[in-house]
Write a structure and sequence with these properties.
This protein is an alpha+beta fold. The protein has seven helices and 19 strands. The protein has two domains: about 260 residues, Aminopeptidase; about 70 residues, OB fold (Dihydrolipoamide Acetyltransferase, E2P), CATH 2.40.50.100. Strand 9, helix 5 and strand 10 form a beta-alpha-beta unit.
Length: about 350
């Protein structure tokens, strides 16, 4: 394993960002039909009008602190069956006290209502696109592109920090982890995002430095913010589309841990002391369509060549055995039988030694 010290050089940066002036803080912040003044909460919807296909709306809560401070955006529900973050943000909305908050929290309660209401994994039931692959979106595109455009302009451009909160979709048995994406373009954003990952609380952190560098083709929610100089994370906690209490709690706790790190609420800052960093990951994809039989579970350690599972045809004859390309840990495993050619079967990550 390579030394962690050879991967990144981290600047020591105190979490700070733009804050609202007293005059700005006194007026109502309006996003869609949601509005809140200092010391208030307000909920409503961002309307995504119909275009070349049907429209939708995005449920949003604005929580304005009585004191000025930065703006943190927390986004749940990018994929349809990632339910633990959705329920966690309902609890954050209920429990976050504007009287104890400095700054503003934007809660995107469900980013992708078409997929959420239809319980579809990965892809929109309207346009067949993955919302987390079409950023920064298009004003006149398909519905997923229009959702991304609305979130980019209404949420990301207003935020100083952002977390795109994911979980294992309805087919994925996932072990919690966080993505940190140092791109080498903005040392402040890279450094603060690393600290945010430690503050969020997951002890597995994937280093993903290969995300696109073009702000006009940013692809991912998190990357759209990061390329605009806003430190951002993608987190994963939850599995198989279940409202598992431990996963809901992890996401809720992560939000409040991060708020304390950003000094937006009072309390002691907690950072993960000895995380396991992953310098390489690979999504294993099915070479054919049929039935998937996994032979490992989330969190399992595998060696190079370990059989992850087999794909059969519809009659039960094996058509492919899927093996680990390198030694590592199964960060998620698809745990439902139906599989189509090219779809994910699981993801293996390689840990790197930290010194």
């Amino acid at each position: 394993m390579r030394s962690f010290a050879t991967l990144v050089t981290v600047l020591v940066v105190v979490a700070s960002g733009p804050t609202l002036t007293s005059a700005q803080q006194s007026g109502a912040l309006r996003i869609g039909s949601a509005a809140a003044r200092a010391g208030e909460k307000g909920s409503g919807f961002i309307v995504v009008p119909a275009g070349i296909d049907s429209g939708t709306r995005i449920p949003l809560t604005i929580v304005r602190g009585k004191d000025p401070g930065p703006t943190l955006a927390l986004i749940a529900g990018t994929h349809g069956d990632e339910v633990a973050p959705v329920i966690a943000l309902q609890r954050v909305r209920r429990e976050l006290d504007p009287a104890r908050l400095a700054g503003t929290v934007l809660l995107v309660q469900v980013a992708n209502l078409p997929s959420f209401l239809r319980r579809t994994v990965y892809y929109s039931p309207i346009d067949g696109k993955n919302l987390n692959r079409v950023y920064p979106g298009k004003r006149d595109g398909t519905v997923s592109e229009r959702i991304a455009y609305a979130i980019t302009h209404e949420i990301i451009e207003r935020a100083d920090y952002l977390v795109d909160i994911h979980a294992g979709d309805g087919n994925e048995s996932l072990r919690p982890y966080t993505y940190w994406s140092p791109l080498g373009l903005n040392p402040r954003a890279d450094s603060i995002a690393r600290e945010m990952a430690l503050a969020w609380g997951s002890d597995y952190i994937v280093i993903d430095s290969a995300r696109p560098h073009d702000p006009q083709a940013s692809v991912y929610t998190q990357n759209t913010a990061h390329l605009r100089g806003k430190p951002a994370l993608t987190t994963e906690a939850g599995y198989l589309g279940l409202p598992a209490e431990d996963m809901i709690a992890r996401n809720e706790q992560g939000a409040f841990r991060l708020l304390r790190y950003l000094k937006m609420i009072p309390g002691d800052v907690e950072l993960v002391r000895h995380p396991l960093w992953f310098d390489r990951t690979e999504v294993l994809r099915s070479p054919g369509t049929g039935i998937w039989y996994p032979q490992v579970e989330r969190g399992h350690t595998v060696q190079k060549g370990t059989v992850i599972g087999v794909v059969t045809d519809f009659f039960g004859d094996t058509t492919a055995a899927i093996t680990a390309p390198f030694a590592g840990v199964m960060l998620y495993v698809v745990a439902t039988p139906a599989i189509s050619e090219g779809e994910p079967l699981g993801m293996v990550g390689r840990p790197v030694e930290e010194r």
